[in-house]
Amino acid sequence: GALLSACSLFGGSDNTIPPSPLPKFKATVSIDRVWSHDVGSGSDHLGLQLFPLVEGGRVYVAGHKGRVYAYDARSGRRLWRTDTGASISGGVGGGDALVLVGTRDGRVLALDAKSGKVKWHAQVSSEVLSRPRAADGVVVVESGDGNVFGLSVEDGHQLWMVGNTIPVLTLRGTASPVLLSGVALCGLASGRLEVIRVRDGTLLWQTTVAIPRGNSELQRMVDVDSEPQVAGDVAYVAAYHGRVAALNLASGRILWERDVPSYAGLGVVGAQVFVTDDHGDVWALDRATGATLWRQKKLGYRGVTAPVPFGDRYVVVGDREGYLFWLDRSDGHFVARVRLDDSGVLVPPVADGDTLYALARDGKLAAYRIGKPAH
Predict the structure, then answer these.
(1) Nearest residue to 113 (alpha-carbon basis) of 94, 131, 128
(2) 10 Å Cβ neighbour count for 72?
(3) Fold held by 2-373
(4) What is the Cα gyration radius of the chain?
(5) What is the largest CA-CA distance in the chain?
């Protein structure tokens, strides 16, 4: 199938709808940049999106040219750097003391999280655009052609595969599997969500979150490219040209759904589900019912990332001009803004405790904390 990058759909250089102007507001929160590093290109013109991984007090990042880095999450001190020589297209994932990346030639590379040494590499059926993840002795990875693989964490040999067909035209990207309680949640380009038992690859259930509609392949794109979010026994999932839905994890039964089409994805905290729609509006929905709590419309067509809950009161998004915006969770008003880098922020920042980690398109990695109240 053909692949479209998010950039070509949501504001590359030829975008016909101009981005909303930078919103004006009085900052009520100050943001401190605690440390930053330049790790070389985090994304490239192919529309690849490489996510930072924050795990065990460390931040791991990769550039598509093959370098993987580990930093101390508090101090920013570099712990190791490994040049894999691979063309990295998916990552960074983790679990079971591994750091995991996927490559354009269809390989999964497993690095020792402590030392950075490459432990093994395994071949799958096509380019890996998502983050491989490991739990319970199994690395789960979805390849660009829609197949889901289970690999041994010990040496990478294939334990199982769940085959899938994908539509003619898909977004360039695949949702990373989410692993919990012995199952993997996988979002697919066909608009389906699958739940697979990690131990043996048994497909426990699948649910269609978005039905292809329209006459053209472009109109019919329903990719579930953003990561499903899980809270309690409910999974929340978003689809491009589709809906946001809440599903019972045990059965796959849809509890509620809303016509909020989303490529960027969503975040869940407390009683709220936050979602960035295809225009760049940020929504807060009631977690129990899906009802709209608020909608922030001032970031339209700015290439906004998925919203990331941060601290007790905020939700953060990045945009393609390189800004990070802090919104108040209660009503969506802006409280702070910083510019990471003018190359743009294509992947959602990662919140870990009191620190937010963000990676710019050209590879600038920075850690932020809330400072003293702004006056």
Answers:
(1) 94
(2) 13
(3) Methylamine Dehydrogenase; Chain H (2.130.10)
(4) 19
(5) 58
Candidates 303, 317, 306, 304; CA nearest to 356 is 317
Return the amino acid letter for 74: R
Residues 6+ apart with CB under 8 A from 215: none
Q: CA-to-CA distance for 260 and 86, rounded, in angstroms? A: 37
Mean pLDDT is lowest, of 34-48, 86-100, 128-142, 359-373, for 34-48
CA distance 169 to 297: 29
The amino acid at 204? L
Question: Tokens 């975040």 correspond to what residue?
Answer: 267
Residue 213 to residue 221: CA distance in whole angstroms: 8
In degrees and rounded to multiples of 5, residue 6 shows phi and psi of: -60, -35
Quick one: tokens of 8? Answer: 């070509």
Predicted confidence at residue 240, as pLDDT, reads: 52
Give the model confidence (pLDDT) of 324-365 as tens digits.
999 999 999 999 999 999 999 999 999 999 999 999 998 999
Taking the whole predicted model, whether its pTM rises above 0.85 is answered as: yes
Going by their DSSP bridges, the two strands 98-103 and 88-95 should be labelled as: antiparallel
Confidence category of residue 42, pLDDT binned at 50, 70, 90: low
Sign, CA dihedral 319-323-326-332, equals: negative
Among 329, 331, 281, 264, residue whose Cα is nearest residue 49: 264
Q: How many degrees, rounded to 5, is the angle at CA 144 between CA 304 and CA 224?
A: 45
Supply 342's token pair. 């003018």
Contact 336, 327 (CB under 8 A): no
Report residue 173's pLDDT band, with 50, 70 and 90 as the boundaries.
Answer: low
How many residues comprise the chain? 375
pLDDT in tens, 286-327: 999 999 999 999 999 999 999 999 999 999 999 999 999 999
Asked whether 150 and 159 are in contact (CB, 8 A), the reply is yes
pLDDT at 49: 74
In this predicted structure, the answer to whether residue 3 has a pLDDT above a threshold of 60 is no
Quote the Cα angle for 179-181-182, to 5°.
75
